[in-house]
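Protocol step 4 of 6: structure prediction from sequence.
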Amino acid sequence: MKKLDKISSLVIATLFLITTGCSMKTLPSAEVNYLSGKEGTITMRAIGIGTNQEDAIIDAEKNAFNVIFFRGLPESEQKIALIGTNETEEKEKNKDYFNKFYKDKRYKTFVMSSIPTSDLTKHKGGKKSIAIDVKINLVALRKDLEQNNIIRKFGF
């Protein structure tokens, strides 16, 4: 009887792990590094993943903005997060702004240049990655966030 209880416990534990493991969401990783910054701009090297080169570049550009918005870049003018560190809460609170910003590709108006620095690399599952150097107009971005009441002046 004890052996049957152990087997039942093991089966229940395995089923629990399988069902909860399938529903867990993984946070996207943003591989973004600071390169340079001057006169209100910031240049970063970002890695993007997609099914083709265009999708991977778009992903890299979005990763760069997410790092500026929600993490900050040490050694740069933007050391702290521009918006805040609770990404989920901020995106939910300002849903309309972020829908227009990302889905309608409004973020492109703040990209001064986006230059691929590596070849498209293939990975398992048909995904491909690319590294790009993206230069962002930080002054215009900050002003836009202020005008849309996402942040207050001076970043507070």
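Step 5 (inspection) to follow. The chain has one domain: 28-155.
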